[in-house]
Amino acid sequence: MKKERFKVSITCKNCGERFILRGNRGGKGTIETGFKQCLCNNVEDFNIQTEELEQA
Question: Source organism's superkingdom (predicted)?
């Protein structure tokens, strides 16, 4: 069974910092990336976009 992989783009609404991460489908339909907080210590105010990656 192949894992679903996603490209996750996160933009901080406080400072504008951008992060592009890879994530896998987690429990309860969430996507797990390991992202915790922005460099400005923001932990909850983000724009998040996901895009499914093609399986090789």
Answer: Bacteria
